[in-house]
Amino acid sequence: MKNIAFFDYQFWATELLLKRFDEIAVIPDKSLALMSHIFNAQEIWIARLNGRAHRFPVFHVHEKENLWNLFHDLKPKIFEALQHENYEEIIHYSSTEGIAYASTRDEIFFHLSNHSTYHHAQINQNLVLNGLKPVSIDFIVFSRKHL
Questions:
Q1: DSSP three-state, residue 89
Q2: C-beta of residue 68 within 8 angstroms of C-beta of residue 18
Q3: Which residues contact 65 (CB under 8 A, 6 or more apart)?
Q4: Cβ contacts of residue 120 below 8 Å, gap of 6+?
Q5: How far apart are CA 142 and CA 37, in angstroms?
Q6: Which partner from 11, 14, 56, 86 sits 20 to 30 angstroms from 116, CA to CA?
Q7: Are 80 and 72 in contact (CB under 8 A)?
Q8: Do 121 and 44 contact (CB within 8 A), yes or no?
Q9: 39 touches 67 (CB < 8 A)
Q10: Half-sphere exposure of residue 87, counting CA atoms within 13 Å on the CB side?
Q11: For residue 2, what pLDDT is reported?
Q12: Is the pTM of this model over 0.85?
C-alpha cells in the first residue's frame, strides 16, 4: 500500500510540473529533457515488468505537446503494475546497455519513485536557473493535502 501512496505523490508532483510547463511560453531545454527522461524511464520499467520491448530510448526528448498524453498513458499502467500480488517476484531484464540484471518488483517500484523525485528536483532547479518560478512539490506538502 505504501508504494501506491508514493506513486500518488509522484503523479501529483508530475502533474504540477506539467501545469507549470503549460504556463511557460518556452520550456527550458533541460527541463523538457528531464521530464521526457522521467516518462521514458517509466515506460522502460513498465515494459520490463511486462516482458516486452519499450517504445522510447531512455534519453529521447518528447515534444511539449506530447507530455500530457504520456502522463495519461503511463499513470494507469504503473498503477496496474502496483496491483501485482508478489512484490518479491524477481524480474529479469537487460539494462539499456544490454547488461543482464535481476531485481524484485519492490526494488523496481522504489527505484521508479526515487528516480522521479530526483529528476523533479532537477527540473525545479533548472526552472529557477532560467528565471522561472519553481513548483512546491515536497512530499510533506502532498501529505498534508492528500494523506
A1: coil
A2: yes
A3: none
A4: 13, 14, 17, 38, 137
A5: 23
A6: 86
A7: no
A8: no
A9: yes
A10: 11
A11: 63
A12: yes
The pLDDT of residue 1 is above 80: no
Nearest of 111, 114, 79 to residue 95 by alpha carbon: 111
Q: Domain ranges in the chain? A: 2-146
pLDDT digits (tens, 9 = 90+) for 61-100: 999 999 999 999 999 999 999 998 899 999 999 998 999 9
Note the pLDDT tens digit of each residue in 88-136: 999 999 998 999 999 999 999 999 999 999 999 999 999 999 999 999 9
Class of domain 2-146: mainly alpha
Q: What is the rounded CA–CA span in Å between residue 32 and residue 12?
A: 18
Using the structure block, give the residue that is written with the C-alpha cell 527550458.
Answer: 28
Question: Please, what is the Cα angle at 100 between 2 and 75, to 5 degrees?
Answer: 35
pLDDT (tens digit per residue) in 32-50: 999 999 999 999 999 999 9
Alpha helices in 24-132 (DSSP H): 29-49, 67-82, 105-129
